[in-house]
C-alpha cells in the first residue's frame, strides 16, 4: 500500500479578510464549542486550541494515522505561516505564483505528491479550521476500500473539503487554472461522495465576520459562491448517501 499525502493550501492573499493575514488570525472565544458542534463525534478536539492560528488548526486535521505525510504550500507571508504550521507538517513548499489564484497552489501540491510517488493526495484549504480529523479517516477508508478517482465529503447534499485525488489525476491537476481548484475535474472523473455529520467541511474563514461567528461558537455558516477556499463546494445538491457515484 503506497503513501497518502495531505496538502494544506496555505499560500493565498486572503484579500477579503480585513485584519491582516487570516491564516495567522486566532479564533479565540468559543472556538472549542464550534469544533464540538461541527464534529462527527460531538466531542472537542484536545489538540486544537482556540488561541492557535487558523492555519495551524487546519494542519492538525491531517494528524491521523491515515495520512502518511503532510505538506503545506506557502506563499504570502511564507515565513510566518511556516512557523505557524512547522510542528504539524512534514515539509513545506513555496508557491512563487501564489498571487495568481488557488490553482497555482493546487498545482504545487499535486507536483509535490507526484514527486513522492504517492497513491493519492488530500487537499485542504488552510482557512478551514474546523474539519473533524475523523472525516479525513472516513475519506481515506473509502479510497482504500476501492473508492473512485476523487473522494469528496458531503453534508446536507453539499460537497465540502478536504478532497482526495488519486495519483491518476495528478497530471490533470497540474493543468487547472484560476480559482476553480480541483472542481475542474469533477465532470470527467469518477467521483465518490461520502456523507459525514461534520459541519466543518463547509466552514472557512474569509472575513472578520466569519472569524467572529466562530468566536461566538457559531459553526453553521453555509459556504457562499465567493469563498476564497471554494476548492470543492457547489451550490447545488448532491446525493448524501455513502458510496454514491456521480
From TrEMBL:
The keyword Transferase is annotated on this UniProt entry: yes
Alphabetized UniProt keyword annotations: Transferase
Record field: compositional bias (Acidic residues): 237-246
Pfam families, per database record: NTP_transf_3
Transmembrane segments: none
Cited InterPro entries: MobA-like_NTP_Trfase, Nucleotide-diphossugar_trans
Region Disordered, residue ranges: 31-52, 208-246
Top-level lineage group: Archaea
Alphabetized GO MF terms: nucleotidyltransferase activity
Ranges of biased composition (kind: Low complexity): 224-236
Name this protein carries in UniProt: NTP transferase domain-containing protein
Species of origin: Natronorubrum halalkaliphilum
Lineage: Archaea, Methanobacteriati, Methanobacteriota, Stenosarchaea group, Halobacteria
